Amino acid sequence: MLTKSEFEIMELLWQEDKPMTSSQIIELSEDRTWKKSYVHLLINSLLEKDMIEVVGFVKTTKNYARTFQAKVSKEEYTVTQFTSMQSFTPNDIPKIVNALISLTDDINILDELSKVIAKRRKDLKK
Questions:
Q1: Which helix (H) or strand (E) is 65 found in, with range?
Q2: 3-29-77 Cα angle (round to 5)
Q3: Of 37-51, 66-80, 90-104, 107-121, which gets the smallest average pLDDT?
């Protein structure tokens, strides 16, 4: 489970969808609830939780800075949070999916879900 501050960093990494240095994270986190000096602790915590990874280094003035990217997608994180908080059986999945589907009026989303279901059916038949 992520803290509020860790989640803010993850949201930024998901939104930007590119490797970022800690300085870039600070710069783009305008509405942050954490202090600038705390970013390294948050990054280390996210590394320990296997939520982000170091993907490279970039030259910054006289030094090199590590670049980080999300290792887990927002969707994957949401599913793990949902499943860890809920105790349900595979028989509950249709009810859950129905509840989620009822949240949208967008036909394109429903079409995309139909494609996902069709692909899963095909994969299971193999």
A1: strand 63-70
A2: 40
A3: 90-104
Q: How far is 92 from 88, CA to CA, in rounded Å?
A: 6
Domain boundaries, the chain: 4-70, 88-125
Number of Cβ within 10 Å of residue 117's Cβ equals 11
pTM of the model: 0.71
**Do residues 83 and 71 touch, judged by C-beta distance below 8 A?**
no
Nearest to 35 by CA among 48, 45, 25: 25
Say whether pLDDT at 85 is over 70.
Answer: no
Q: Is 16 exposed, middle or buried (0-12, 13-18, 19+ CB in 10 A)?
A: middle
Statement: residue 123 has pLDDT above 80: yes
Q: Tell me: domain 4-70, CATH 3.90.25.10, correct? A: no
Provide the pLDDT for residue 24: 93
Q: Token pair of 41, please? A: 């602790």
